[in-house]
């Protein structure tokens, strides 16, 4: 009599130990296979290759994962990595600075005026590291401009780049980027061991680093077209610091 229960028991064990399907998402709601994500990554890298030096590449990074039914959902974002110094650095050194004050660095604006970072204390700040040939950085700009429009009186919005002031001025003449711009920051960026772009920091009103994030997560529309997210998660973190 016992033998008749062996097969059902084996089938039950197989069902219970079946590995979950791995599914990827860019905004928590959509669902894509690993192959679809890789196709989009390669397309974005091809676009990038036309804009910046070949020592940069596009990387798809997993930023979160959660279970849904029989699937393991992995949330991803795309970012630009500097191959010369990527290694273990990326933005790890900055992450270790969470809870500490942002350096009191002095940097020039695109027109050459020198500004010390203590000038931004008094309200929370969004600090975006970018450069003018970085495709994911440029993709974020319309979302950031909308943030400035909606919240510009409550928060500082600051963009820092290693680009020369003249290059940034030429960029801004063609494309609006409504942050306060600080330029020629290569030495400073090297000192904080940052190699991943875009990177965004959230500082409290005293200039203390509270969050270190990569670029805004991309999302795909119903037709599978790649687009930038809405940045609402970033605003929610800022509101928590008020």
Summarize the topology.
Layout: H1 6-17, E1 21-25, H2 34-49, E2 56-68, E3 71-82, H3 92-95, E4 106-108, E5 114-116, E6 125-129, H4 135-151, E7 156-160, H5 165-174, E8 180-182, H6 186-191, E9 196-197, E10 199-203, E11 209-213, E12 218-220, E13 226-228, H7 232-240
Parallel strand pairs: 1-3, 6-7, 7-8
Antiparallel strand pairs: 2-3, 3-9, 4-5, 6-10, 10-11, 12-13
**What percent strand?**
25-35%
Terminal Cα span:
69 Å
Question: How is the biggest beta sheet arranged?
Answer: 5 strands, mixed
Strand order across the largest sheet: 8-7-6-10-11
Order of helices and strands: HEHEEHEEEHEHEHEEEEEH
Count of distinct strands: 13
Low-confidence stretches: 1-17, 50-57, 82-88
CATH class category of the domain at 84-240: Alpha Beta
In short:
This protein is an alpha/beta fold. The chain contains seven helices and 13 strands.
What does this 3D model show about the protein?
It is a single chain. The chain has a domain at 84-240: Glutaredoxin (3-Layer(aba) Sandwich), CATH 3.40.30. The longest helix has 17 residues, at 135-151. The N and C termini lie far apart (69 Å). It is globular, with a radius of gyration of 22 Å. It has 7 helices and 13 strands. The strands form 4 sheets. Strands 8-7-6-10-11 form a 5-stranded mixed β-sheet, with no helix packed on it. A hairpin with a 5-residue loop joins strand 12 (218-220) and strand 13. The relative contact order is 0.17. It is an alpha/beta fold and 242 residues long.
